[in-house]
Amino acid sequence: MCPNCGSFLIKKDGFTKSKNQRFKCKDCSKKFTFKNKNKSQKLYTSYIKDKKILNALAKENKKCLSTIYNTFKLIKIVEPTKLKLKEIILLIDTTYWGLNFGVVVFKDTISNKFIWWHFINRKEKLDDYILGFKWCKEQGYIIKAVVGDGFKGLAKIIAPIPFGICQFHMLRAVITKLTKKPKSIASKELLALSKELTELSKESFVNKLNAWQEKHKDFLNEKSIDENGKWRYTHARLRSANHTLNRNLEFLFAYESIKDLPKTNNGLEGEFAHLKTKLRVHSGLKLENKMKFISHYFRLKNEQR
């Protein structure tokens, strides 16, 4: 890895006077040697993988704390690089630390490798995903299908690539509208049906949903006068949950017609949980150091797979 830009596109470039192998980065054209590569990279790998804090690393390596700290300051944020893959099926999502800072991640479910990541200091936007798909196209990847969380507009920007919505994300969306303990019988039945999403085929689920809609048709269409004297649907949140399910039926069962397409993006959610557990050990990191940690976590995971 280039110590200047973090690129893995490097080549041998002769030797120094002291007969150390010299390398040249194909991206930034900088020349360098790896005199301290093994030590610094080994330390940082231990910092990430073994959840060792700086004090523990200093004692274990018989170094002062400032030496460890200065060594880590030289570590660069790793940028995504082209992997030796051709066809990929992407799991895409964004995870956050705090209200705004987060990372948009694309992971291939076939190779189980991280394809692309992008740090943001705000809420995710459709443009962030467009940037990722554009990068994948430039690298020559063939995207067979995509599984996401149903972020509005995703299916349109990747068309005609098949798109599937994570069924667990859909369940969470329904729970948000109905709550975990709804009071009405209709709401309880719809919530129970939503929890069967991962167990039912599209045909079975649609039949049950249609039967529920017919059973509670009058209840769904009930109206009442609000405080402004206007007629409104009495059970607006229930209608909204029902509409959400109906609107996304096409994408909820995309896996039935596409080979190797998962029902959920749990393969990515699990990675987020694991990453946050490791990062929680090193509380109080500044934003740049947090970005270093996260990007090197992705790099290490790719090297292991």
What's this, in brief?
By secondary structure, the protein is of the alpha+beta class.
Describe the protein in words:
The protein is α+β, with helices and mostly antiparallel strands and 305 residues long. Helix content is 45%, strand content 18%. It contains 13 helices and 10 strands. The chain has helices at 37-49, 54-60, 65-73, 126-138, 154-158, 167-178, 185-194, 202-215, 217-220, 236-247, 249-252, 266-281, 287-304, and strands at residues 10-15, 21-25, 31-33, 87-96, 101-108, 114-121, 142-148, 163-165, 223-225, 231-233. α7 (185-194) runs antiparallel to α8 (202-215). The chain is elongated, with a radius of gyration of 25 Å. The two termini are 18 Å apart.
Topology:
Layout: E1 10-15, E2 21-25, E3 31-33, H1 37-49, H2 54-60, H3 65-73, E4 87-96, E5 101-108, E6 114-121, H4 126-138, E7 142-148, H5 154-158, E8 163-165, H6 167-178, H7 185-194, H8 202-215, H9 217-220, E9 223-225, E10 231-233, H10 236-247, H11 249-252, H12 266-281, H13 287-304
Parallel strand pairs: 4-7, 7-8
Antiparallel strand pairs: 1-2, 2-3, 4-5, 5-6, 9-10
Helix pairs in contact: 2-3, 6-7, 6-10, 7-8
Helix and strand sequence: EEEHHHEEEHEHEHHHHEEHHHH
Please state how the strands of the largest beta sheet are arranged side by side: 6-5-4-7-8
- How many strands, what sense, and barrel or not for the largest sheet? 5 strands, mixed
Shape: elongated
Task: Indicate the multimeric state.
Answer: single chain
What descriptors fit this protein?
five-stranded mixed sheet, 305 residues, alpha+beta, three-stranded antiparallel sheet, 13 helices
